[in-house]
């Protein structure tokens, strides 16, 4: 806990301190298009708002007079040790936010000892990201292609590049109704900012013989949209790799059951940061029923609205094994590249350590529902 006390009374160095301040700074830096793409949600942003609101529905009931001089944030997840129960969520197109792209985020995660999940639609290719931090824990997030050969090729490349898990995102068969992006006339897809993994793929190159920008863009869009995808297709993925497969984007307990029954290795309770189905349940509210259904068979992660140490604590108390953060670290990347992401992670770590200590716990596994009071 040493570093916490040495910082008391120090002046800040001008970096933002709160999630909201990072967001404000990022807004000053970015043009309206990219900022809107990053910050906004789908539809009327009901789900985006609910993701935050849900955390206000619970208060922490701390325990006192326990020895909390030694707080351990470490957790084990899918055979890896994480320095705290937090991962960097897959966020595509990071080149529109900072020139260091996903490389900056990957390096910051690696030095912090937490996993980075690289999106399918990254500005740097999955191989470049892996090479930038060979020792870092990295997961590859798969946007299913309607072309099985392309899906298989990407998974094989990820495995070969040293990724330790595949995250398959299942809430994105069609793109959500993102009003802000329509208003701004902005989509990073149009700019080919997320095309690296496609243009470097041998199967994709065969699919797109006429290698013009227009055709690449059309082929990516067509390949990503897959409203006909079902659980049967996911079984194909199971056969493609021996890596653990994490299913991201589950809210309904019956779907969680399906994922476990079909042999998948972890679940992320998520509504894509409120960017897909507007009106969908807040992740935190959907979490308990999924945890109950899964009953310890596989790890259950969650994301959506995590902004501070108390949020992480509450999600764990509701049954999450770990959480992911999306926008917060990308605001950090926007403001300061790798150093900005590092700062967001380390401030969250400091706050989380204090939250554990002040709530009276010294290890993640001690945290349970008895530490929460519903409002
Ligand atoms: C995302 N998210 C996302 N998810 C995914 O599986 N693949 C992707 O490529 C992306 N891309 C993406 C871009 C941007 C700009 C955002 C904000 C989000 C969703 C992401 O992984 C995560 O589920 C949410 O961001 C979590 O919510 P918070 O932490 O942003 O509230």
UniProtKB/TrEMBL annotation:
Coiled-coil intervals, chain numbering: none
Binding locations of glyoxylate: 143, 178, 272, 275
Keyword Transcription: no
UniProt-listed Enzyme Commission number(s): 1.1.3.15
Domain of life from the UniProt record: Bacteria
Active site: 272 (proton acceptor)
Residues noted as binding FMN in the record, renumbered to the chain: 90-92, 119, 141, 169, 248, 270, 303-307, 326-327
Names of required cofactors: FMN
PANTHER family found in the cross-reference section: FMN-DEPENDENT ALPHA-HYDROXY ACID DEHYDROGENASE PB1A11.03, S -2-HYDROXY-ACID OXIDASE-RELATED
Protein name (database record): L-lactate oxidase
Lineage of source species: Bacteria, Bacillati, Bacillota, Bacilli, Bacillales
């Amino acid at each position: 806990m040493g570093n916490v006390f040495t910082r008391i009374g120090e002046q800040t160095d001008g970096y933002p301190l709160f999630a909201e301040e990072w967001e404000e700074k990022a807004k000053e830096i970015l043009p309206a298009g990219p900022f809107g793409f990053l910050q906004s949600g789908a539809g009327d942003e009901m789900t985006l708002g609910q993701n935050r609101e849900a955390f206000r529905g619970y208060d922490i009931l701390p325990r006192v007079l326990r020895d909390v001089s030694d707080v351990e944030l470490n957790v084990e997840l899918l055979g890896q040790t994480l320095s705290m129960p937090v991962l960097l969520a897959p966020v595509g197109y990071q080149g529109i936010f900072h020139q260091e792209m996903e490389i900056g985020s990957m390096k910051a995660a690696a030095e912090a000892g937490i996993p980075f999940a690289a999106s399918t639609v990254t500005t740097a290719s999955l191989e470049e990201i892996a090479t930038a931090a060979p020792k870092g824990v990295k997961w590859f997030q798969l946007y299913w292609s309607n072309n099985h050969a392309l899906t298989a090729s990407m998974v094989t490349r990820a495995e070969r590049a040293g990724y330790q898990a595949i995250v398959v995102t299942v809430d994105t068969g069609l793109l959500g109704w993102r009003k802000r992006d329509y208003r701004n006339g902005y989509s990073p897809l149009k700019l080919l900012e997320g095309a690296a993994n496609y243009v470097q793929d041998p199967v994709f190159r065969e699919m797109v013989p006429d290698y013009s920008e227009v055709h690449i863009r059309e082929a990516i869009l067509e390949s990503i949209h897959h409203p006909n995808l079902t659980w049967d297709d996911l079984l194909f993925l199971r056969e493609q790799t021996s890596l653990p497969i994490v299913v991201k984007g589950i809210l309904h307990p019956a779907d969680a059951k399906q994922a476990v029954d079909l042999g998948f290795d972890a679940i992320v309770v998520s509504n894509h940061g409120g960017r897909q189905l507007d009106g969908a349940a807040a992740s935190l509210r959907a979490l308990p029923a999924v945890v109950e259904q899964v009953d310890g068979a596989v790890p259950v992660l969650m994301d959506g609205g995590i902004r501070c140490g108390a949020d992480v604590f509450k999600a764990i108390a509701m049954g999450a094994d770990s959480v992911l953060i999306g926008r917060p670290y990308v605001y950090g990347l926007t403001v300061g590249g790798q150093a900005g992401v590092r700062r967001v992670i380390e401030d969250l770590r400091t706050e989380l350590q204090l939250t554990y200590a002040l709530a009276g716990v010294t290890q993640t596994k001690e945290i349970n529902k008895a530490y929460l009071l519903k409002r």
